[in-house]
Specification:
The protein is α+β, with helices and mostly antiparallel strands. The protein is 50% helix and 12% strand. Helix 2 packs parallel to helix 4.
Amino acid sequence: MMIVKYTEKNDLDAHIERLRKCYAEKCAAMLDAIDRYFPKTVTHTTPDGGLFLWCDLHDDTDTNAFVRTALTQRVAFVPGYAFMVDITKKQSSLRLNYSALPAEKLVEGVRRLGLLLNNR
């Protein structure tokens, strides 16, 4: 009933378009920051949609352990092992979310991660 009332009173298509624009801007800000602050050896996906992107450090960094270091700088990500069949294997990949924070905070988080990655 609530959804019906919402769609009767609001332009759902316009709302979805605003959300798409908002998430596209946040994604672009995060991708730009990754290109600017992460080591050049790091690769990342360029999403066509969704709320996440995937990075691979392409080295021997265990992102399951590295996330604890990142947390000391008030930055969080999901280590790649969380998406693998064999969670005992060391993973140098991570998933970043760009949906919840404003673009400037996303950029700052990527900058902090970049400092940690560049100073390992």
